[in-house]
Amino acid sequence: MNRESFAAGERLVSPAYVRQGCEARRSHECLIRQLLEQLLAHFLLRFIHGIGRSGDISAVQPKAAGSSLLNKITNSLVLDIIKLAGVHTVTNCFVVPMATGMSLTLCFLTLRHKRPKAKYIIWPRIDQKSCFKSMITAGFEPVVIENVLEGDELRTDLKAVEAKVQELGPDSILCVHSTTSCFAPRVPDRLEELAVICANYGVPHIVNNAYGVQSSKCMHLIQQGARLGRIDAFVQSLDKNFMVPVGGAIIAGFNDCFIQEISKMYPGRASASPSLDVLITLLSLGSNGYKKLLKERKEMFSYLSIQL
Q1: At what angle do helices 3-10 and 15-44 cross, to 10 degrees?
Q2: Could you give the angle at the alpha carbon of 114 between the alpha carbons of 176 and 61, nearest 5°?
Q3: On the CB side of 25, how many CA atoms lie within 13 Å of its CA?
């Protein structure tokens, strides 16, 4: 009931009775508000302040020691899982409260400060909108490289990639944007060869590894690419690899300073929910539990292949 309703009531019965009803209603509203506050606090485990500071999403927040500790532990656990999954030489990573597409955009925007003359991103084609929009949103022009058919698979056209680098000139290219896991008949990009091309021409290399942590093949490609050539950062989805709600990603790389630069590019503080979700998941699974899931995935893939 609103004020008009109470005022109308006072014209029919004693105002004192109406005031009693109004006070009783306020009491009920107060109880409901307290219940909602308790539910919210319970849901967030009282980590309400979020993570990071205004200048760095990975920085410690003096006003929220608990959230900062949670964030540091989560990033350490995730780094350990990435190593366990096959990328043994990764040096740094952080959880970002954005899905894969926007996390890729954050990487591109960080590179912009290092390569101010660049305006193109070389991108072996993958038919997935968020990958394409991540480059457009960052203000760059995607240079689409069509794949080549080899048997029943679509593979990276390495000659076309190198020819385009030579044609445009390395200084005008922000990076090569490659992909690991994707939908058939396209297979993972030739990361090792692309990494070598990037190293030879001094062009950065960002890898969309959205589904890849769960795939030993994808993780091996990243490890080999970093060993033989150049991979600046690789981005993976939290929900696709860690069974948590949509809205988080992991940005990882082999140069600690560059990953820190990306974290400092994030404007402002952020929600702790993705970090909290993945922390709870990893603590419940443990490393043995996650390795068991990776093993089961391989077994299921073999079974699927046989049945097909």
Answers
A1: 160
A2: 105
A3: 11
Place of tokens 């105002």: 15
Reported as half-sphere exposure (CB side, CA atoms, 13 A), residue 221 has a value of 23
Helix (H, G, I), strand (E, B) or coil at 12: coil
CA-closest candidate to residue 143, choices 171, 177, 110 = 177
Nearest by Cα to 233 from 105, 51, 55:
105
Token reading at 6: 């109470």
Q: What is the pLDDT of residue 15?
A: 75
Q: Is 251 helix (H, G, I), strand (E, B) or coil?
A: strand
Question: pLDDT per residue over 17-41, tens digit each?
Answer: 667 777 777 777 777 777 666 665 6
Q: What's the CA gap between 39 and 30, in Å, rounded?
A: 14
- Alpha-carbon gap, residue 147 to 153, rounded angstroms: 9
Q: What is the pLDDT of residue 92?
A: 97
The side-by-side arrangement of strands in the sheet containing 233-237 is 92-96, 249-253, 233-237, 205-208, 173-179, 120-124, 141-145
Cα 238 to Cα 8: distance, rounded to the nearest angstrom:
55
